[in-house]
Design goal:
Length: 324
């Protein structure tokens, strides 16, 4: 949350700078034109100190009208303009009545401009917050706050390209909640949504690396994309995930469920991406792996076309394969 607020604040600050830069040229031209009018012989018979005092107030008014200034910036302009008129008053170049009138005008200008600046900044902030919210809604699942399909494609596309470049192994875990429909039918959709949130929280607690990409790609399907990971660690993480879901102790509502508590079926696929490899092929492989896990009775892991029961280590799996 704090990062988002800082990002929005920076974006608003950048927009204000751009807004001010756009108007700087016009403001300079107007100031020069007013200066010529005020100080030219045609300006009338008013003494030069009077015209200088009026010119300072006009410039102050113009700057606060044209630019979005911080209160400190406006106050600095006020002090500059006032110090000039005060110096002229002390030197008895202008009358006290004129000094007082200009001081009140300058102070009123600062007050009004500060309110205007606050309104503009608030408008900019609301605009940036709205854009940020729309961007988030476009890439995140509202219920679980995980990436949705759109967010997944954006994040994985970048990670996939880096893994190709750096020749790093990638792994994909596709998890599907076993008999999730029965939870909705028996407990209601609100409780079903609560279960999805719990599963999402469990997944986030298991995969904490900054490079881990977690998404909800369907009603009860979750995909985790892991870069720079070997097969042994990948299987271990899938086992940890499966155990963490069971540890939620959500009682099963389906007679066909192989476990007394909420469980997931998991498919795993790995790849060392080559220049011509496509992500869609890796997705197809992991989807097929998940299908085999569900076909094998659920609450298990399908990896390299082998069905692995929860708790089976890579060493045990290799030992079993060697004995065959």
């Amino acid at each position: 949350m704090a990062d988002n607020e800082n990002q929005v604040s920076q974006q608003v600050e950048d927009k204000i700078k751009f807004y001010n830069r756009q108007r700087a040229g016009l403001a300079i031209v107007i100031v020069v034109f007013i200066g010529i009018l005020v100080f030219s012989m045609a300006a009338g018979g008013e003494a030069l100190p009077v015209r200088l005092s009026a010119f300072c107030s006009v410039v102050l008014l113009l700057c606060n009208a044209v630019f979005v200034l911080s209160f400190r910036g406006s106050l600095l302009l006020l002090l500059t303009a006032t110090s000039i008129t005060a110096a002229l008053f002390v030197l008895k170049q202008i009358r006290f009545e004129l000094f007082l009138i200009l001081l009140l005008i300058n102070a009123g200008t600062i007050f009004i401009s500060s309110k205007t600046a606050q309104a503009i900044i608030r408008s900019f902030t609301n605009e940036k917050n709205k854009i940020k919210r729309l961007e988030t809604e476009a890439t995140k699942d509202r219920l679980t706050q995980l990436l949705n399909r759109n967010g997944l494609e954006q994040a994985v596309g970048t990670a996939w390209a880096f893994c190709k470049r750096d020749k790093k192994n990638v792994g994909v875990i596709l998890a599907d909640i076993d008999y999730f429909k029965s939870y909705n039918d028996t407990l209601g959709h609100l409780e079903g949504d609560n279960i999805l949130k719990q599963v999402a929280d469990s997944i986030k607690s298991c995969f904490r690396r900054e490079t881990d990409i977690i998404s909800r790609i369907g009603g009860d399907e979750f995909l985790i994309f892991l870069s720079d990971i070997n097969d042994e660690h990948l299987l271990e993480m899938a086992q940890v995930l499966s155990s963490s879901i069971i540890d939620l102790k959500v009682k099963t509502t389906s007679e066909n469920d192989p476990c007394d508590f909420l469980s997931v079926s998991i498919g795993i696929a790995t790849s060392m991406p080559q220049p011509d490899d496509l992500l869609i092929d890796l997705y197809k492989t992991v989807d097929e792996a998940l299908y085999r896990a569900k076909k094998a009775g659920r609450n298990c892991i399908s990896f390299h076309e082998k069905i692995i029961q929860i708790g089976t280590s890579m060493d045990e799996l290799q030992a079993t394969a060697a004995n065959k």
